[in-house]
Design a protein that fits this description.
One of its GO terms (molecular function) is N-acetylglucosamine-6-phosphate deacetylase activity. InterPro entries: Amidohydro-rel, GlcNAc_6-P_deAcase, Metal-dep_hydrolase_composite, Metal_Hydrolase. One of its GO terms (biological process) is N-acetylglucosamine catabolic process. Keywords: Carbohydrate metabolism, Hydrolase, Metal-binding. This protein has ten helices and 22 strands. It is an alpha/beta fold. The protein folds into two domains: 80 residues, Urease, subunit C, domain 1 (Roll), CATH 2.30.40.10; 307 residues, Alpha-Beta Barrel (TIM Barrel). The strands form four sheets. Strands 6, 9, 10, 11, 12, 13, 14, 15 and 16 form a nine-stranded parallel beta sheet that branches. Strands 1, 2, 3, 4, 5, 20, 21 and 22 form an eight-stranded mixed beta sheet that branches. Strand 2 and strand 3 form a beta hairpin. The protein starts with 7 loop residues before the first strand and ends in a 7-residue tail after the last strand.
């Protein structure tokens, strides 16, 4: 039976976010879920588009990428009940995130017991996005447990560990060798948050990177000198800047001081809900290092659900309004913000351009993970994950792998 001919789609009358500018009345061609160069398919072969989509003057941007999301819609990625539980949970979140323009994400596990990692990680495999399965799963973000006990935040302090045996302790705790953690395999773990002041961590960074894992520093009381050592060894991101780290002091600015380092300044995740970080602090970070900003939700199970009691890993938490706190001590425990809200807030808080706000949720996280050839841009060869936005940066349409997702579809 002959294979079905590829469908060619043409998007017209759009304002494309490309080359760090807005290109008016541009055209986008999509074939087999990819953005293509029209010369390759249209002009050379004379093939006409099967479908023409009129963007009606809307902004067209790459789909948003969330590199730190603990859960949503009642799902907590750090929980384990049974195989179907994690599979169904990933499906539910993947579908639900498309409503907010998030087309790729890293399911994030907070500090957990080794048996949780061993059970859950084999199921957080990279998975392509489509309108049936939802947003693309890029792999896992492991936030802990190799973090400082002085900066545990909402994590269960009983799960926090040191690494006296270096990289071997990471393998033992995560079971990386059993979950595709070697470079060149179907690697499940894409990003790890560690504290460089924890025993054995600093000397493990280079080996972690050799496996193809991106290393971020956070949940740490590291001095600025220690933080710079981690950067020199290859760490290139700060996890939720300003939160769970030594606060800025003019004599030793700690991890925050990396915004002014003479070494390559790292990317930094920032929770742009106006609760975790004051808008003025967000603007200070942006003014210091605009090309490093990566918007993250740090969302947890209560995102998309009404106020009430939930859990974050083993920790009981309570959602009240837009805030989630640990019931026992009142500490902040993740957020309930969505990626599109983060983009709008970032523009409002910093006064940045539309382009900069969008790139903080698209290009920058893709660059961090080394996937900018397929994500975070509208160049030929990139996946056709797109959002149409109005001038207030509200989602009008969302496409994943070139197909439009019905925003009114009730998946939650």
């Amino acid at each position: 039976m002959p294979s079905q001919a590829p469908r060619l789609k043409k998007i017209i009358n759009g304002r494309l976010i490309r080359d760090h500018k807005i290109i008016d009345n541009d055209v986008l061609y999509i074939c087999n879920g990819k953005i293509i160069n029209p010369q390759d398919c249209f002009f050379s072969s004379g093939k006409l588009p099967n479908e023409i989509i009129d963007a009606e003057g809307l902004l067209i941007a790459p789909g948003f990428i969330d590199i730190q999301i603990n859960g949503a819609f009642g799902v907590d990625f750090s929980e384990w009940h049974e195989e179907d539980h994690i599979k169904n949970g990933l499906d539910k979140v993947s579908k639900g995130l498309l409503k907010y323009g998030c087309t790729s994400f890293l399911p994030t596990l907070i500090s957990s017991k080794p048996e949780i990692y061993h059970k859950v990680l084999p199921f957080i495999k990279p998975r392509k996005g489509n309108i049936n399965q939802g947003a693309e799963i890029l792999g896992a973000h492991l936030e802990g447990p190799f973090i400082a006990s002085s900066q545990y935040g909402a994590h269960d302090v009983m799960n926090i560990r040191t690494a006296p045996n270096g990289f071997d302790d990471f393998v033992k705790v995560y079971g990386l060798l059993h979950s595709g953690g070697r470079k060149g395999e179907n690697q499940n773990v894409k990003l790890i948050t560690v504290a460089p002041d924890v025993e054995g961590v600093l000397n493990s960074i280079e080996q972690l990177i050799k496996t193809g894992i991106t290393v971020s520093i956070g949940h740490s009381s590291a001095t600025v000198a220690r933080a710079e050592e981690a950067i020199k060894k290859g760490a290139n991101c700060i996890t939720h800047l300003f939160n769970a780290m030594q606060q800025f002091h003019h004599r030793d600015p700690g991890i925050i001081g990396l915004l002014g380092t003479n070494y390559p300044r790292p990317y930094y995740g920032i929770i742009c809900d106006g609760i975790h970080v004051h808008p003025n602090s967000i603007k200070i970070a942006y003014d210091s290092h605009p090309r490093g900003a990566i918007l993250v939700t740090d969302a947890m199970a209560a995102m998309g659900l009404p106020p009430g009691d939930y859990t974050l890993g083993d920790v009981p938490v309570r959602k009240s309004g837009k805030k989630v706190e640990v019931i026992e001590n009142g500490k902040l425990a993740g957020s309930v913000i969505t990626m599109d809200e983060c983009v709008r807030n970032f523009k409002k808080f910093t006064g940045c351009s539309i382009i900069e706000a969008i790139e903080a949720a698209t290009l920058h996280p893709a660059e961090l993970l080394g996937i900018e050839n397929v994500k975070g841009t509208l160049y030929p060869g990139a996946d056709a994950d797109l959002v149409f936005l109005d001038d207030d940066l509200k989602i009008v349409k969302c496409f994943v792998a070139g197909d439009e997702f019905c925003l009114n579809n009730n998946n939650n």
